[in-house]
Amino acid sequence: MSTAAVTMTPSSFDMPAGARTRLRLTRRGRAVLTTLASVPLVIGALLFALNSGGAVATGDQTHVTFQQVTVQSGQSLWSIAEKVAPGADPRDVIADIVSLNQLDSAVVSPGQRIAIPTQYSH
Questions:
Q1: PROSITE patterns, from UniProt (predicted)?
Q2: Closest by alpha carbon to 11, among 19, 112, 69?
Q3: Running DSSP on this structure, what letter comes out for residue 22?
Q4: Which of 22, 48, 59, 85 could in theory staple to 120 by disulfide, Cβ–Cβ 3.0 to 4.6 A?
Q5: Residues in the chain with pLDDT values less than 70
Q6: For residues 47, 48, 50 and 54, what is the CA-based torsion angle, rounded to 10 degrees?
Q7: pLDDT value of position 47
């Protein structure tokens, strides 16, 4: 009788159940994954850019007429608001003046020309 010895080379089928092979990404694989990840971001940015111009003008435009006033020395918006609209709340008048003139604050200086809505200048 003769004995034969069989040698087997290790393969992936012979690995124990808990062993894992390490996955290596090539340069091309990284490029593909990066592209796939960035496509939704690019589409979202394009949709956002296209929808941002969605303001529509309607026929209900508000026209504000106003009167120009020059601020005198010692005057404040509070004193001007009390003078032009004695029956109204000065805070509301000041808010309208600041909004109409696009002022950063309620501080005015002598010689400054400001617009007063005509609803207050009667």
A1: LYSM
A2: 19
A3: P
A4: 85
A5: 1-19, 53-62, 120-122
A6: 130
A7: 85
Taking the CA atoms of 37, 40, 44 and 47 in sequence, report the sign of the dihedral they define: positive
CA-CA distance, 69 to 20, in Å (whole number)?
82
CA angle (24, 14, 17) in 5-degree steps: 75
Query: Rounded CA gap, 68 and 114, in Å?
Result: 6
Torsion sign over Cα 21, 22, 27, 28: positive
What is the value of pTM for the model shown? 0.47
